[in-house]
């Protein structure tokens, strides 16, 4: 039996995405777990771009990955490593394996490989090349060939995993994987091992779809006499229905969540709870997450994405967010959705956002909640409001207009008191004037209670809308 072994040392984690598309929400959680564990242990968090597949790797995808990580606030502690730039070092490691007798040149054609694979399957083991125990001549080495890893033929391999426990493999089911292709470029498993070793990675925290790779990579580590890192394979994220997360479940890219109006601190909070927990705590900040997080507490079962819970978490972080920061975010959202920004916009938002943010779950909702305040009066009235404008109501609203001119302060509490005095003097309940007043002042948009509505739009706009409502 082969047992992998690792030596205790200062923790170094890494996030190693392939730049073939956007930063997936599952990848973002993997990056977060690596970042949290490095911070928890006082270690280092590194980033490596696995771009050895030059045909599929794109600059746009690299930029998207960095934009997503920057938005989430997951900064590496050292220079980013680009895997393709280390090709020479990968080949050096392969040469060392060949010299040790742990790798060999294989000259099988594609057709011969398929035949050999089928024969091996019938024999009950993985592919074994006839070149495995042959020494090629110098002339043969001039011909196209790959370099394969020469693994154990039929041993039991146990890979300890910090999440999954001890995972057992039989090497008879593992073919002699290719290390270098015919064009001399390194393959994924070889490059990952060399890079993780050279970067000093002590803990490989990644999705459990890489669990089989852990066995292959462990054998390469041991063949090179390198310490094997601690593996921690985390279950993937599923949709609310328990199926593998896909487009039909909604947003998948980190950039999509930013566009939908979620805050990065809310995403960190929520993603940390997807597959890891600290008792019943649902809301926690970065400092608490760093203090509490341990890979030993990661669940083995897949986590389910719950948009309702994400909305609830995001609502909390909106409520406690700095109002000026929310002003900037809402102003940007308004411009992005076609609203012209005026010199007064930010002043209006500064008054309004503290009054309406309690009910918003996203920045998009918060932007929608201020439409009533940034609209410019006079505005057309809807039919329901027009029907409420009786002679009696118009007379009463004219008296309110005159009353507003005497108010010497302008905040929700003061306005609420003045409105109560007005209806008392009119000897009516507020229901007699509230609906028509809301219809005139809200500009046809959802709005908070009347006192907050007036405080938001300001004295001048209040008078403009009142006047326009009375004469349209």
UniProtKB/TrEMBL annotation:
Positions with a binding annotation for ATP: 247
An annotated GO cellular component: cytosol
One Pfam family it belongs to: Anticodon_2
Aminoacyl-tRNA synthetase class I anticodon-binding domain segment(s): 334-467
This protein's UniProt keywords: Aminoacyl-tRNA synthetase, ATP-binding, Cytoplasm, Ligase, Nucleotide-binding, Protein biosynthesis
UniProt motif 'HIGH' region: location: 17-27
Residues covered by the Glutamyl/glutaminyl-tRNA synthetase class Ib catalytic domain: 11-306
Reaction it catalyzes: tRNA(Glu) + L-glutamate + ATP = L-glutamyl-tRNA(Glu) + AMP + diphosphate
Subcellular location field: Cytoplasm
Motif ('KMSKS' region): 244-248
Major localization class: cytoplasm
UniProt-listed Enzyme Commission number(s): 6.1.1.17
Keyword Cytoplasm: yes
GO molecular function: ATP binding; glutamate-tRNA ligase activity; tRNA binding; zinc ion binding
Enzyme class: ligase
UniProt record, GO biological process: glutamyl-tRNA aminoacylation
Keyword RNA-binding among UniProt keywords: no
NCBIfam families: gltX_bact
Subunit structure: Monomer.
Function: Catalyzes the attachment of glutamate to tRNA(Glu) in a two-step reaction: glutamate is first activated by ATP to form Glu-AMP and then transferred to the acceptor end of tRNA(Glu).
Similarity comment: Belongs to the class-I aminoacyl-tRNA synthetase family. Glutamate--tRNA ligase type 1 subfamily.
Protein name per the record: Glutamate--tRNA ligase
């Amino acid at each position: 039996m082969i047992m992998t072994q690792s030596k205790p040392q200062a923790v170094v984690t890494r996030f190693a995405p392939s730049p073939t598309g956007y930063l997936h929400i599952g990848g973002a959680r993997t990056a977060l777990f690596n970042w949290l564990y490095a911070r928890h242990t006082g270690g280092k968090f590194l980033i490596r771009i696995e771009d050895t597949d030059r045909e599929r790797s794109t600059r746009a995808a690299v930029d998207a990955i960095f934009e997503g990580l920057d938005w989430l606030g997951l900064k590496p502690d050292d220079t980013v490593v680009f895997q393709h730039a280390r090709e020479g070092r990968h080949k050096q490691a392969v040469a060392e394996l060949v010299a040790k007798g742990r790798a060999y040149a294989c000259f099988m054609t594609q057709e011969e490989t398929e035949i050999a694979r089928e024969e091996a399957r019938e024999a009950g083991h993985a592919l074994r090349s006839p070149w495995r125990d042959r020494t090629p001549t110098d002339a043969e080495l001039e011909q196209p060939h790959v370099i394969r890893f020469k693994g154990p033929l039929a041993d039991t391999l146990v890979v300890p995993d910090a999440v999954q426990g001890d995972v057992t493999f039989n090497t008879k089911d593992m073919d002699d994987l290719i290390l270098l292709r015919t064009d001399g470029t390194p393959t994924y498993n070889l490059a990952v091992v060399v890079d993780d070793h050279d970067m000093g990675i002590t803990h490989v925290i990644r999705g459990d779809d890489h669990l089989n790779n852990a066995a292959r990579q462990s054998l390469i580590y041991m063949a090179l006499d390198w310490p094997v890192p601690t593996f921690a394979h985390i279950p993937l994220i599923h949709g609310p229905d328990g199926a593998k997360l896909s487009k039909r479940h909604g947003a998948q890219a980190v950039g999509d969540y930013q566009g939908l109006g979620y805050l990065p601190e809310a995403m960190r909070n929520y993603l940390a709870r997807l597959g890891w927990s600290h008792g019943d705590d649902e809301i926690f900040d970065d400092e608490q997450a760093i203090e509490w997080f341990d890979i030993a507490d990661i669940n083995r079962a897949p986590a389910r994405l719950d948009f309702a819970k994400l909305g609830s978490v995001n609502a909390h972080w909106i409520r406690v967010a700095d109002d000026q920061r929310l002003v900037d975010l809402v102003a940007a959202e308004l411009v992005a959705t076609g609203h012209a920004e005026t010199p007064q916009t930010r002043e209006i938002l500064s008054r309004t956002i503290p009054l309406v943010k309690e009910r918003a779950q996203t920045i998009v909702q918060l932007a929608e909640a201020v439409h009533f305040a940034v609209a410019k009066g006079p505005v057309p009235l809807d039919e329901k409001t027009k029907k409420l404008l009786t002679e009696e109501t118009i007379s009463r609203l004219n008296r309110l207009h005159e009353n507003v001119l005497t108010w010497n302060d302008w905040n929700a509490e003061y306005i609420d008191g003045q409105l109560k005095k007005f209806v008392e003097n009119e000897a009516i309940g507020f229901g007699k004037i509230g609906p028509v007043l809301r219809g005139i002042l809200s500009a046809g948009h959802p709005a908070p209670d009347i006192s907050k509505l007036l405080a938001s739009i300001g004295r001048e706009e209040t008078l403009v809308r009142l006047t326009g409502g009375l004469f349209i």
